[in-house]
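ARCHIVE CARD
Drawer: 12
Card no.: 0347
Subject: one protein chain, sequence and derived structure
Cross-reference: see card 0346
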Amino acid sequence: MYPTPAQQVALLEQCRHARHVWNLALEQWSMWTRDRRPTPGYVEQCRQLTEARAAFGWLRSGSQTVQQQALRDFARAVKNFYGGSHRRPTWRKAGQHEAFRIVGSQASRIVKLNRSWAKALVPKVGWVRFRLSRTAPDAKSYRITRNRSGHWHIAFAVIPAPIPAPGSGEVVGVDRGVSVSAALSTGELLVCPVPSKRVRARIKLLQRRLSRCRRGSNRRRRVKAAIAKLHARSANRRKDWLEKTSTDLPRRFDLIRVEDLRIASMTKRSKPKPDAQRPGSFFPNRRRAKAGLNRSILANGWGELVRRLQDKAPGRVERVNPAYTSRTCSVCGHCSPENRESQAVFRCVACGHHANADVNAAINIAAGRAVSARRETPVRVSPKREPQLSASA
């Protein structure tokens, strides 16, 4: 979106009102205990909102439609939380959660100006122009957001049709990694764009400059905006790659198999290891290396890639147990830690098969459950006890 300076001030005011109403509803819901009465619902909160608008002029100057929609969205968030499909609603902070939603007849007031431009009617703001990235759909609601770099966006709530399967019967395995974002069983290596060395050095310089700025100063605000602009550019490149990859794979293959990874658990911080001999001291836990690995995993978009694949190709994405997929030979099925010479080289010690380690793992993922069925698991024998043969043997 490209609002005028006066419209930007009005849009930020609408975001502030929606955020304030959301946080008040969250505060009421968080104060509930078992010995108290139920917290107010959406109908009661709307009545309280009417009284608050009559008492406070700054709240009355905003759109009642935006404020009531914030209460409706919070009620839906609480219902989804109790249903187990979403996380617990959290607080909305200024500068991070600048957004509001419009639902109803006002959401359909979209006028197309030409092939590239259109305008939307925002309550208490007026007509705001925006650039069309695609044809404007006939949506019943839209959401206006402002990211940390100061860019405004409008998104329409439309459920797109799933990508049809090609009907060729081909199955592809996707192995996600750090150096190679996605390795396909066909031998293709897909790499997500990451910030260059020059951009990383620029971010590091700006972060040092930010640490020397006085809190609340204009200089600190400008430095934060410059850092946010660089991060937003990197996020846009990553999102563009994820969208293109998650669209290309369902168009080419009927079934997509990925590793069933718990990314939230994999990207947790290293727990401190206290030293019992020295109170107040801790053992080394390699937290710096773990933090770097976490950043690499999140920068490659492991979870977002699978989520978008499931959205675009529902029912055609299968999760496979990742155990032993990187150690098992895709030709003979021999499983051994010595097969993995390095992070990128795989050489089977049984048959001598040589291939890229990520591609070999992707082939095993494409095989699915056949990998665990054919792998040879060595029997571990305790050194103190000899294996006893049964009578039938």
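Annotation on reverse: Residues 5-156 form one domain. Residues 375-393 have pLDDT under 50 and may be disordered.
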